[in-house]
Every structure is written in C-alpha cells, then in structure tokens.
Specification:
heterotrimer; A mainly alpha (387); B mainly alpha (339); C alpha+beta (639); C: 639 residues; alpha+beta; 5-stranded mixed β-sheet; 4-stranded mixed β-sheet; 22 helices; globular
Amino acid sequence: MTEVVPLKGHYVNKEPFDPGATEPAGNESESFYRASSWRLMWWKFRRHKVAVAAAAILLAFYLLIPFVEVIAPYNQTKRNGDFIYAPPQPVHLMHEGRFVGPFVYPYKFSFDLENFQRVYTTDTSKPEPIRFFCRGDYYEFWGLVTWNVHLFCPPQNGTLFLLGTDRLGRDMFSRIVYGARISLTIGIVGIAVSFTLGLLFGGLAGYLGGWVDHVIQRMIEILRSLPELPLWLALSAALPANWSPILVFFGITIILGLLDWPGLARAVRSKLLSLREEDFVRAAELMGASKGRIIARHLIPNFMSHLIASATLAIPSMILGETALSFLGLGLRPPVTSWGVLLNEAQNLAAVQLHPWLLFPIVPVVIVVLAFNFMGDGLRDAADPYH
Amino acid sequence: MILFLLRRFVTMLVTLLIISALVFLIIKLPPGDFLTNQIAELRAQGEADAAAKAEFLIKQYGLDKPVWQQYLVWLGAMPGQNGFSGLLQGDWGWSFEYDRPVTEVVGDSLWLTLVVNIAVVIFIHLISIPIAIYSATRQYSVGDYIATFIGYIGLATPSFLLALILLYYFNRWFGISIGGLFDARFAGQPWTWAKIQSLLAHLIVPTLVIGLAGTAAMIRRMRANLLDELGKQYYVTAKAKGLAPSRALLKYPFRMSLNPFIADIGNLLPHLVSGSVLVSLVLSLPTVGPILLSALKSQDQFLAGFILMFVAVLTVLGMLVSDLLLAWLDPRIRMGGGR
Amino acid sequence: MMSMLPRLKAGLLALLLACPVLPALAADYAEQPYFAEKVARKELPPVSERVPRTPYVSEQASGQYGGDIVTLVARARDIRYISTYAYSRLVGYDRDLELRPDILEKYEDEDDRVFTFTIREGHRWSDGHPFTAEDFRYYWEDIALNKDLSPAGVPEFMMVGGKPAKFEVLDERTVRYTFDKPNPRFLPYLAGPVDPAIYRPAHYLKQFHAKYADKAKLDEAAKAQKLKSWAALHNRMDDMKEHTNPDEPVLQAWRVTNRAPANRFVFERNPYYHRVDTHGHQLPYVDRIIMDVSSGGLFAAKANAGEVDLLFRGISMSDIPILKQGEKAHDYTTLLWPYARGSELALYPDLNAKDPVWRALNRDVRYRRALSLAIDRRTLNNVFLFGLGIEGNNTVMEQSPLSFPGLRTLNATYDPAEASRLLDAIGLSKRNAAGTRLLPDGREMEIIVETDGEASHIVDALTLIGEFWREIGVRLFVKPQDRTVLRNRAFAGLTNMVAGQGFDNAVPTAIMPPTEYAPMRQDNYAWPQWGQYVETKGKNGEPVDIPEAQRLLDLYTIWMNTANHGVQRDVWTEMLRNHAENQWSIGTVAGALQPIVVRNGLKGLPAKALYSWEPTALIGIYRIDEMYWTKAALKEARR
C-alpha cells in the first residue's frame, strides 16, 4: 500500500483504477435517484423560501374564500347612514395604561357646513371591546343557510370600521373580504379557460404537425400581435348591458382567458415538438399505443410542471385585467363586489385627498399578485428538477 | 436574406389582413351602431333635420348593408357609395361622433402616442439594464433585494391607481398641472423651449407608471440571463487571463444576454400600448387611448377600427423590426436552423 | 326674489321696458385696450361707431375692461354651450325671470298672436355688416321654408294647429310674425337655454345657398368636403348652434376664433356687441373666454389645484368637499347655488307598459301613492345631499311664483303603514315566506327599475329605496342600461319603471309653456307612447286613456289658446296639483347645490341664485358679459 501524500492541496489516489467498479449509493442519493419527478420538484421548490411563503399566503387566501361571510364583521349590504366616509378605527389594547383587550374608541359624526366636510370626533374615554365568535348581521351562508355567527363583531351598539367606510356608510374591510371571493375566483376560472384552450391547440399543433400546426401557429401569431387592453375594451363593450351580474362575471373571465391562451399554447407546442422525438415515445408507438394514450400518458406529464409554472405566472395579469376593466366601468358592476369594483369607486382625486382609506383594496391586489409571481418563479425554477 | 425578408413581409401582410377582419367583427359585435342610436335620440329631442342628416349618413356609409359587405367597403376592396374609398386607398373613414374625418380627430394624438411609448421604452432600458447588471454581479446583496422589490411593486400595483396617486403628489410637490401632456397655455402654440420643458415635466408620471411594470420584468429576465452567462467558462477564462472585471462583463456576457431583449422589443410594444391606454385615460393625456375608449363605448366604428388597426400595425411592425434585428445578430436564425 | 308684479297686457309692458333709460349715453364710449391697436390702424372703427345707436343699457353692470376667463369642457363639442353661457337672445329672461328684449330694441305682442320685432338701429354683426330684417327674411324664406335645407319643415314652435306663421318685413328694422291662433310658447322658446336663432347672417350664408350662388360650384365644394350636397355644405357653414365655424359672424358677446380639433378654444370679444353699461363701456368687460378640453373626471381636481377661473358645468354636489378644500391655497371661492330641478331622482312608473299585470298596477293611483309614501326621503337627504335638500314631490321649487303650500309634500311624506294599507286595499295582500307580496298571477312583486347607467349616485339611491320598499313587501331590482337602449325600451313599452331626473324647469312662471307636465313628449318615461302619439300627430303610439292624464292635455290646450296670464297661471296651478295628487312621477329629494368655482378677483355673479338648465340657462341670466376682473387681479399676469 503506497502512502497518500497530500501534495499542495491535490489528492491523488495511487490505487489501480477499475473502470467497472461503482460506488455504492448512500441512503440519501438512493432516495434521490428513485424519487419521482413530482417529489423532486417539491424538494427543489421547498428550498426557495420566498416561494414557499408566497404559496402559504395564497393558500390561506383561497381557503378563506368559502368563509368570507363569517370573517367579515358586517354583511355585504349593511350600511350605516350615520357614518358615511368614516375614517378607519384603529384597534387598541391598552386603555389608560391598563390592558383591556382588543377594543376601539367610538366616534361621532358632525357636519362642518363652512367647509362642507364630515367631521368625526373620537371619544377616547369609553373603550368598546370587540366581540369574538359572536352573533352579528345575518347572511346567507353559501346561499343555503341563514346564519349570523361571525369571527368577530362590532361592540354592542358600537361600530367597528377597521378600514373606514365608503360613500354609503358600508364597512370597507367587510367589502374587501367579500370582494376577495370574486377577484380570486376570476383568476382561477380565467386560467382554467386559457389552460384548456392552450393545451388543446398547443397539443394538436405539436403532435399532429403539418397543416394543423401551420394554421394554429398563424392563429397564435395573430392573437399575440393584438394589443390586450384595447381588445378587452372592445369585447367588454360588446357584452350586452342587460346581462345579469353572474353572466357578466363569466363573460369577463372568458374574455380574459380567450386572449391569454396563445402564450400557453406556444409553450405546449414547442415542448411537444421536442418530446415527440424522444425514444420513449417511439417505444410507445411501436408497442401500439394510440395517439391519445401517448399524449395523455407519456407526453403531457413531462411538461405539466412547466405549464403549471406558466399558468401561475399568468394569473396575476388576469386579476389586474379584471381590476382594470372594472375600473373603466366595463367589467363587473355593483352590486357585484370585487376589488376592481371597489377601486372604481375610488378613482377620483377626492378619494386620494379626502378619504385615502378608499384606496385600501390596492393592498390585497398587490399582495396576491406578488404572491403569484413569487410562487410562479419558484415553480418555474423547480419545474426542471434534473437541470 | 432577401428571401427571409420577403417571407416575413408577406406573412406580416396576411396577419394584418386577418387582424383587420377580427377588429371589424369585434367592433360590430354590440347591437346597433352610432347613427341608428343617434337617430332615436335626435327624434326624441325633436331635431328632425338632424335625424334626416343621420339617415343620409347611414346610406352614405352603407350601414344598412350586411356586415361582410361593410367590412370589404371599409377595407377598400369593394366600392361603396362613392367608389373605392377604404383603408387601402388611404381613406381612413369618418367619425360620426366628432363629425369629421378620422384623420382629423386622431391626428396629433397618434404621434403623441408614439412619443410616450418611445419614452417608455427608453426609460425601461435605461433603468433596468444598470440595475440588472448590479443585481447579477452583487447577487443577494441589499441593493439587489431593494431593486427587485421596487420592481415587483411596480409590477403588482394597478397602473391607473399608481398614476392617480403620483398625479396628485406631483401636483402638490412640483406644481405640475393636472392631466395633459403640457400646460394648457401651450395648446395650439408652436414648439418653444418652454413648451418642450412642460412636455418633459408632464411625461414623468406616465413614463414612470407605464414603465415600472415593464422594468420589473426586464430586470428579472436580464438578471437571469446574466447569471446564466456569468457562470460560463469563457467569462471565467477572461477574468483569469487578467481582463478587468467590468470590461470582461460588458464585452462578453452582457452582449450575449442582450439577445433576448432585441427579440423582445416586438413583444414590448403591444404591452406598452395597452398599458398606456389605461394610464392615458386616468391622466387625461391626448393620446390614442381615451379616444379609443369613447369610440368603443359610443360605437363610432370607423374611428375605433382605425385606432385598433393603428395599434396592431405598430405591434406587427415592431415584431418585424425585432425579427430583423435578431436575424442580423444571430446567424442561426438567418440560416433557418432551429425551431 | 321673484317679482310679484301682476302681469299687464304684455305689449304695453314690453314697450315701456324696452326704452333705454338714460339717453345721455348716446355719444361717449371708452375704447377697449384690446382693440386700441386695431382702431389706431384703422382696421376697426372706433367704439362709438361700433355700438348701435340705441344699445341695450345695463344698469347693474359696473366694471373695467380686461382679462380672460379660463374654463373647462369635457369634449370639444361642448363649446357649443357658449351660447347658453353668454345668453344673447332676441328676448331673454332677466334675473327675476321676466321677459325683456335683448338683441331686439322692442317687441310688440298682440294677444300672443301677432309679434312685431324691432331691431336696434345701427346694430351690426361681428364682422361689421349691418344686422337687418333681411337676416330674418333669409332664415324664414331661404332656410326654414327651403325643402333642401329643412326637410322636416318649419320648426314646431313656429306653428300653431299645424299651420306655420305668416312672416312679413315691415321695414328695414321691423318684422312681424302672425299666427292664426295664439302661440304663447313663441317668446319663451326664443328665451330658452338654446337659441332657436330665427335670424342668420344672410350676407355670409348667401354664398353657400343654391338660390344665390352657382349651384354646380357649390355641389363641387360640397363633394370636396365629403358632403352630400350644397344643402349639407350650407348647414355645415351655418353653425350658430355648434360654433365650429370661426368665419361665421355672430351677435353674442364672444366669437370663436379657432376650429376643432383642438384642446383649447379661444373666444374673442365681439367688437359690435350691442350691450353697454351706464359708464360708457361697451360690454363685455372680459376680453376672452378660453375653454380647455379636459377629461370630465379631472374637473374637480383641476379646480382644486386652481387651474380654472370659472367652472360650473361638469362639477356637482359630491365634488363640493374637495372644491372647498383648495379654496385658501389656490385663491378661489366655491359658490353654492340651489339647483332648480324637479327632483334629483324621480321614479317614472311606465303607464304604457306592455305587461298586463304591471300595466294595471302602474295605472292604479293607489299603487303609485303607496310607493311614494314608503320612501324615507329624510335618509336619502342625509346620505346624498348632506341633509340640505328638500324632501318631497317632483315639482316646482318654492321660489317659483306658481308654487303653493303643500304642493311639495302631498302624498310624499314617510308613512309606510299607510303605504302598506293602500297596497292591501288594491288586493296585493298575499305574501310569500320571505315577506314579499305576490302579484295576482303568483309572481313575486319585484319591480325592475331601469336607469341610465352613467350616474352612480342614482344606483346608490335606488339601493336605498329598495331597502325602504322591502319594509312594505316590495322588491326592487336595479338594472343599469345604456342610454339609447333604455330609450328604445321605454318607447317600445318594455320598461316597468324608469329612474331619472325630475323636471327640467322647476322655477316656471305662468308664461312658460307647461310642456313637460302634459303627456306630450315621448322622452318622458311615464308616458312614452302617449307622448309619441301627440308628437307624431296620431301616427304612432297610443292615445291617452286615463281621464286625469287627459285633463293635463286639455289644460295644456287651454294654456295654448289664451293670452291671458291669469288663465295661464290657473292652468299651471291645476296641472301642478294634478301631478302631486296622481304621482305620475314619484319624486324624492330636490334642492341639490350646484358648486360654482370662481377665482377671487372675478366679480359679477351673485353669492346665491337659482341654477337650472331652463329657464336660467345655467348662469346665462346672470350675465357673464357683466363679469369683470378687479384691478388687483388684472395686475397679475393673466394666462
């Protein structure tokens, strides 16, 4: 046995070299090699801390959607004529040095005729505690059951306007919570539409090739050359004005999805084109698998991860698109509440100057859009685990 | 090369043709049209002679003919009341709402739209390239995080609200008058230095707002590309051989990572134009956006059609330019290799 | 305040009032600095030769020359409102809403049947050409009676019983219109917010008329401008309503100097304007009016930032807080004038609805009264008008001489118990599990209220009304529509109830025609078919078949056929009472405040006055040509 002599940081093993020998895999690398692609993706995703946090936030948001009625302290239509454009009531814990629990100070409304301003004077002598798990306004839970249990309610005979009120005296916080349901759903439904179309057309183009590919490619090119917003405007203006709010909602999501599928389709197509030549596809063909089975069982799972990443990155533009359309008055309209509709009501300078709390719906929009972006980034990085 | 050019050109023409058909279809989707709507309103107000004029206009522009015929007349492929007079002949139509030719209505706002969009493109490149280089070379530093963070905020905030807020604060802090592209007193005046200064001051808010979202995306991509290139062998070799780091950076990886951006100019334009429409509405800029919105709402079809076509042509041209640039830069595309 | 003078025979009074008060003014006028150069270069005659020999003398006007007034318009087309703001009419209303000759020197009115107009001697158009009876003749014979230029014929207000007036030129300065039967709406129409302009600049327009110029050349010129014929070209050039032709001479205080498309329209003073003050100044005081085109949503913001001198059209009560906020920093004042409208929001049950159940209900007066009694107008007042409005019917304002006590509140108090009782009495006492009443055919009683979707506060108000009606078991569904779709649906009888604004003219006097209050127009959503029937003279629509509504038509005919102002006043009173009793339209709150932004230093507008489209022509009757800048304000650099 010769000595191992470290030579200036280089290590040279003097043993005879046997090319046929392999190193036994340790436990870790064993599981690494045996893991399915989904598991690999998950591990890689997990390392991207920000993306995980974003995903957690989004999950929280979406899980709350079924329970908006319980979370909002007021129901959707409750308005208070005595508290119009009331400023936000901050929540305090300490009253005159003592710990009282979460409470708000009540305020009173008076009208300054000289300056035509509404004046709210806070009364800091009487803390009014917030009630939890209490009975408050009635609402229809999922349209089925009339209930009135809320997560937290305004104090007895008091008001709890965490984010102030709007021009009819409706609580902004409650409206934002109710609006979350519509805004978040539009993103998902719109993506579903564009996903389906993208998969369909991209798949056909990629797999069948030939003139089908050619025609679909031209379609994609044309749709991508059209500027988004003007087309959204045109299509929204074409929605009949006498449709019910639900129909308008679906119309808007379909419009948003219709103009978005080309991006997805191109990605699908190019992926399919490269995968088509792979050996495993040839093997499947030789073994007699039908075209459908090949596409569904072999091809699609291979680039699903990329698709999901792209789709996730497309959702924010849908949410922003709905916001833009509602802002212009072409999307959803009251009584449907979405963040876009709320922002529409804040679109003049009076809102910025006199009642800045009306602009608060921006915050959840920004959070959700950022979260989707970060999560999508993480997914995209993780999508190719073998890279 | 010539063959490539020719092929691209022909494809572009075909694309434009199909786009024109789509645009026309979409505009005609809502029931009725401007004139028929107006007639009912005029009759109700007892203005019978104005109603007669509207009826005359309907005949003149063939609005009582089937849609496909109207489309062909608009294009200039079929003769209308006064012979061939459509887009192909350079007659861009009549605006019913403004009661004058479309060219007169749109005139100034077209090139103002171009000015705004070009300013935004320049802004995006000027800002995002240095930031991206800084981010890539000093990865995970504080500066990197701050830059990316600001970029993301710009990406996520609805642009029109940002425009409104900035409008208010710029007026408070800098006294820039609200709305418009220059102070009202310069309207209709010849271009003096003062007017140009006013124009630049008013361009700040729209450029910032429209550009912010694009900046974020560009920073991200540039940074990712640069990081890719920075890991490559030739860069390490260049540094090892003693080339100053900044020179090495600019001469090699930077040029490589620019590739996608040239390609992207084509993509940038449609996003910019659509982004600028919304912001123009809020800021009351005399660009094409507000005119388009009101034309769509009132079904002033020739005006809306022309603006949509203009925007589409801008986009397609942009894509052509970027394709050409790319072909010039990257020989592989010229030779037809790769998919 | 309104004058309570009993009206004498109109002719006598008009003669008396028309004479200039101080004959001493005939000679000495001060030249305007704006024209000093032109006069020196002999491009303009001196002011004493430009003013008519017998100008209109305004006794309350008192100011100095100079300055511009900057205001805003939402679209380029809106510059046509200059004729409403500047309010130069043959006869016009003064601040007390009395008719006075303005452009005319005097007029004689015999039984509202024969009208004799006399033009001021030496009155010229803005280009210097004399204004004579020829301009009236040209309009009547060559425009109104010309089949090419007026295919619809003579305007409606110049016809009585289907027959047009008889027109004659008595001399160079006098014309006469004779009607077979009394036409009491003739003069009020001439004093309306939009000038019907029965005179035109003949010397300018003749070059575009086939009778006086070469028809072939005219047709060619027309084609060059993409117009159908010489008639279209003439109509394009003859543009006293839209003000798109800077070359056309005018008689009002300012004339437009540039064409569309533009973002800034400049109106320059008319050197031959016919009004003067008692100190030797030819009006107007202000040299130019400048209208900047800007997006409507930015009006309040721009006013708040101090970018306008005068602004009223395009801002409303909800903008008042932000307008008030900028006053100190940007040196302007926000005047708050009561808006004279019948009601800020009125509900019009469609009496011509096609659906048989709703048709029967809408026609039942108890139903309409019940809906009216169920509205909590106090809450609406507090929420939308800061509690400063007037709750009650869609009717005339208290300042009108025709108003009487109780008119506002008849059937318009808040009494949900009585409302419920009335609905039960009709037979709608069955309710379903949710408490909503059921119609006779078993459907839920859900009223679909359609509205012009543009105004968001109307949708808000309807939301509140929906809550009030829920208390009595009626459901309300708001359906915003596009305006033209709404109109067409109403005309076709497809609407159940429409929400809109109340009466336009809410401060009428006895001499103003009660057209809005009778079923004569199809744009009134309560009776579109009846209105259509009258407008098309029986060809379309349905005839009135409710006796109370027919009474309104009969009353209108009485008003039309008399020249006795006492009788006209009685007609008005009965019509107003008829509306309050029958609730043809259900009013809610009136008396919104219209903010008027005036820069400090610009004087002339009263601190508080009635504002309305008709009859005050927005601020027309308060005479913008008598507004002036103080010396201190003039010293600052004007824009």
